[in-house]
Amino acid sequence: xxxxxxxxxxxxxxxxxxxxxxxxxxxxxxxxxxxxxxxxxxxxxxxxxxxxxxxxxxxxxxxxxxxxxxxxxxxxxxxxxxxxxxxxxxxxxxxxxxxxxxxxxxxxxxxxxxxxxxxxxxxxxxxxxxxxxxxxxxxxxxxxxxxxxxxxxxxxxxxxxxxxxxxxxxxxxxxxxxxxxxxxxxxxxxxxxxxxxxxxxxxxxxxxxxxxxxxxxxxxxxxxxxxxxxxxxxxxxxxxxxxxxxxxxxxxxxxxxxxxxxxxxxxxxxxxxxxxxxxxxxxxxxxxxxxxxxxxxxxxxxxxxxxxxxxxxxxxxxxxxxxxxxxxxxxxxxxxxxxxxxxxxxxxxxxxxxxxxxxxxxxxxxxxxxxxxxxxxxxxxxxxxxxxxxxxxxxxxxxxxxxxxxxxxxxxxxxxxxxxxxxxxxxxxxxxxxxxxxxxxxxxxxxxxxxx
Length: 452
Ligand code: SF4
Hints:
Elements: E1 3-8, H1 12-27, E2 31-32, E3 41-46, H2 51-66, E4 73-78, H3 79-83, H4 85-91, E5 97-100, H5 107-120, E6 126-128, E7 145-148, E8 151-155, E9 157-158, H6 169-173, E10 177-178, H7 181-193, E11 198-202, H8 218-227, E12 235-238, H9 248-256, E13 260-265, H10 273-278, H11 285-298, E14 303-310, H12 317-330, E15 334-339, H13 357-380, E16 386-395, E17 398-402, E18 414-416, E19 425-434, E20 439-445
Parallel strand pairs: 1-2, 1-3, 3-4, 4-5, 5-6, 8-11, 11-12, 12-13, 13-14, 14-15, 18-20
Antiparallel strand pairs: 7-8, 9-10, 16-17, 16-19, 17-18, 19-20
This protein binds iron/sulfur cluster.
């Protein structure tokens, strides 16, 4: 039985595709192994979103290529493979195949063709990077999720039909393709039966889910179907919402169902209307403020997360000050910042990248420093609250978990200052102390049966 080792980099959507690829290889008779040196085939699921991500993908592949045995095959899959196969093959000449993210379902076929060719001719690489629509897991009977412990990522759509000026994702993944509601509900039931407690819904823009299937309020519709099959204690978390797309019905569904967490991940990228217009993004700040007020009014204790870009072409000191003032005014619970990366092929690549790197870094620091203080204040408001916490790990005298306010891999943690025997379960924790990004608490219940 041939053995494979699959390394997935980048975002949870890549993690879900990697899980799908692993499923397909096992169905094709391959066996997964934990280490590259044990494998016949090594697959790197690359990320090609921004320069830093490409650098990590390149370094990973080059270090694997440096130790590649003659009898092993090295495959580059994922977003960078889709975006720039030629450059990838030039920088990693040891590659046997390149599989674009849109065609991840074709991995078994790619490996079969490589095997057949190798028997006929010497080293010849195979490239599958057709600019087709994103492949959906149900097209090959693969899972559209990835689970770790009791927490799962559940993909609801992929690709994006928007054209934000700085973003390369539509170039890489094409327009949005939504999964059928039935397929997502089936996957949620499978995850439930695998004892998942947390279901993180992912797409590029979750709030537009189903538009390509004819739904006007597809996400609200999907949530209503999901809560019907998931226990009340489940955590349904929506990631990657888009401004201007949070409908009154969606807010109602979030407010009415305990499974849907009061957690809103809403990347805004900026707050100055002129910059937002240059970014080709919604710029009606009054409407945005109304939505944030409505969310806070309808969802008590809602946790608001956003992502911002520092140093977009043309960003003046005054425009940046508007952004700082907005962050101070809105006091988000969670906030991430990127310095603007000038991405080839995007609309913004035509603008002059006129904000010097050191100014970008200075603005990044200013935003993160401001948010550090706000995050501590927001965390202090949690002291005294009793929250359900999903325990995920232990250290010597510490147990680590997450509350509804902490999305996996990107937010803070809840720390319990003793080692709890069993993790991977929901418990009840009284918050006793606040840190900048994390909370400290004590275990007060074994069930987690409290409303967030
Ligand atoms: S909505 Fe998100 S994924 Fe789509 S183009 Fe804009 S930034 Fe990129």
